[in-house]
Amino acid sequence: MDQEPTPAAPAVPGALPAGNTSVTPVAVAKVAAAAASAVRGVHALGTASPRAFGALREAVAHDAVLGVTAEVGTTQAAVDIVLTAEYGRPLYELADDVRAAVHDAVEHQTGLEVIEVNVEIGDVHVPGLHDGHPGTDRP
């Protein structure tokens, strides 16, 4: 007796299989870092001292995102950002723009409710100004 295979039940449009989705703090931090970096006036994430050790930290922990940390719950996220600003842009205006960009990107891309975005401007990059102490870079 030959039996024909029973055809699979057609998928119901809009019905999804059961399962859970979670978004890690690293994923949220990377989304936040990309959004913050795209804001005009952000020179770099982090400050000069942490950036000096960034290569070592990257080698040890590939999941680290320089200057950005995130706390993630089941439905909410909070993000802390430390950045170096470009000279000439009002710092509170820059912080507001970074906060808005990060809030929108994280909510849109992760589906999490962003409850806060803390922005710390730890340094200002001034083109032509030496990063070291006065006189240390001169003969």
Offer a quick outline of the entry.
The protein has 139 residues and is α+β, with helices and mostly antiparallel strands.
What does this structure look like?
InterPro entries: Asp23. It comes from Arthrobacter ginkgonis. This is Asp23/Gls24 family envelope stress response protein. Belongs to the asp23 family. There is one protein chain. Helix 4 links the parallel strand 3 (76-86) and strand 4 (113-125). The N and C termini lie far apart (95 Å). The protein is elongated and about 80 Å long. Strands 1, 2, 3 and 4 form a four-stranded mixed sheet that branches. Helix 1 packs across helix 4 (91-110). The longest helix is centred in the C-terminal third of the chain and has 20 residues, at 91-110. It has a single domain (25-125), classed as Alpha-Beta Plaits (2-Layer Sandwich). With 139 residues, it is an alpha+beta fold. Helix content is 32%, strand content 24%. It is built from four helices and four strands; from the N terminus they run αβααββαβ. It has helices at residues 25-37, 48-52, 54-60, 91-110; strands at residues 42-45, 68-72, 76-86, 113-125. The model is unreliable at 54-61 and 135-139 (pLDDT under 50).
